Amino acid sequence: MNRSKAAVRALVLAAALVLPLGLAMPASAATSRDGCTVDPVRPIHNGTFTAGGEKWIDYDVEVDCSAGRTIELEMQRWEADSGLNGADDLIGTSSTTRTFNTTSGWTWTITGVLPDNDGGIDQWSEMYQRVRFRVTSNGVQGSWTAWESSGIRDIHV
Known about the structure:
Blueprint: H1 3-24, E1 31-33, E2 36-40, E3 44-49, E4 55-65, E5 69-80, E6 89-100, E7 104-113, E8 124-137, E9 140-141, E10 148-149, E11 153-156
Antiparallel strand pairs: 1-2, 2-4, 3-4, 4-7, 5-6, 5-8, 8-9, 8-10, 8-11
Signal peptide: 1-29
Protein name: Secreted protein
Keywords: Signal
């Protein structure tokens, strides 16, 4: 086999090994609609603990809106699962509404206790959030966006 064929084979093999990893990684991208942009941020341990030693987790959503907009947000907080059943666990839901009189940014933060849904089998909780929103402008309410997911963060229980 000549060198060019060997090089092509090596590239094809490398792509076959790397491509599935790239596809499996959770993606997060901001969603823009009707003068507002919303970006769910990967959850993070905020450095504090409950009296019982459990970790507090922050779920941040970064919001930018043009003046004269009212945004309604819905958030779902999840713990990701894989394995045989692969069913993710819904941890909680929240909603809020905010009116922007001037063009500005804002971070909506919900703080909750880190769950241990795996009962000692797994010492990590894989946390993420999903958000959707709709905007009202000049008395006209837009439709809900599709759910947008943050990236997943593994947090030791």
